[in-house]
Amino acid sequence: MASIAFEDVSKVFDDGTRAVDGLDLSIEDGGFTVLVGPSGSGKSTALRMVAGLEEASGGSITIGSRVVNDVAPKDRDIAMVFQSYALYPHMSVEANMGFALKLAKEDTGAIRERVGRAASRLGIGELLERRPRALSGGQRQRVALGRAIVRSPQAFLMDEPLSNLDAKLRVEMRAYIARLHQELGTTTLYVTHDQTEAMTMGDRVAVMRDGRLEQVDTPQRLYEQPTNMFVAGFIGSPAMNLLRAVADEDGVLLGDQRLRVRTKFRGDVVVGVRPEALSPAGEDDEDVLEMPVVLSEMLGSDVLLHLDAPTSSALTADMLDTDDLVEDSCRFIARVPPNVRPAPGERMRLRVDLNRVHLFDPDTEMVILR
What we know:
Elements (H helix, E strand, L loop, with lengths): L3 E9 L5 E10 L4 E5 L6 H9 L6 E6 L2 E2 L10 E4 L11 H11 L4 H15 L14 H13 L5 E5 L7 H18 L2 E6 L2 H7 L2 E6 L2 E6 L1 H6 L4 H6 L6 E8 L2 E4 L2 E3 L7 E7 L4 E3 L7 E11 L4 E6 L22 E6 L10 E6 L4 E4 L6 E3 L1
């Protein structure tokens, strides 16, 4: 096993596109770090530079004690799991999993033993004689994982390995990969655009945007203490509500409604409130926002209320990883208990937990209060 480090790493393509810009990031030995961000944020390019599939334009990349910028991919002692399974269709599962060991001229008996051990760990021991076309998507991905495991590399690099699977299989494979990391302890750098995947798998999550690192921390601290509006709006499902407001000596004013948030900041602000920080208000509750309901989504364990907010939203398309965000100046979502089911058009009073309110500077997008 080995640590991975980026030191002021940049990548500029021949057409002038700067895909990665001054990336500084360390993945400790045995750690599981997830690179997450919207499409075009540079996360896959960063991973490919570690693998040697892309050449860094500047800075240094270290695996263990070696700077590997000029080391051939085959000599970096890493194993990569791709979005496509990249299995040889004419080979059996066993042959696919042991192919790299065969190329390395490992003993046939040792290959069989290592493949069998990995297959057993992945629950595919009975599939070793099958061809990839006879496997389900989840089984093929386990074979791809097994092919990486048998090599016993210093690090695993995983580039959106679950994106081709349906929702149920993605959940199952997330658990498989997380459990494998616990068992093997191999340093893992994992790339995804799915922030739910990032939050549930990584012990650290690095959020990227436009080639730059926005914040890196534990999943819980990213959720509770985002350093800027982008991270606040990107991390969490549903996303944090970000509303334009004005701060004065009495708190923050959202339209004609006030929250008694204490801040020394005066002037325009962006107020961040997570859907989970809202609850149905009682008659005597203070710090309440009252809004008409647009839509109720019943999720079984809770209900997502879509409401018309008192002021315009500050969420942008890249915060939600979509290019076709509907221009909705009144986007606001609350997560409430399943017995709360207001009709569309009904006005809903929601108490805001002031201990979970975030304030951001609308010009710098950096946090003022969290």
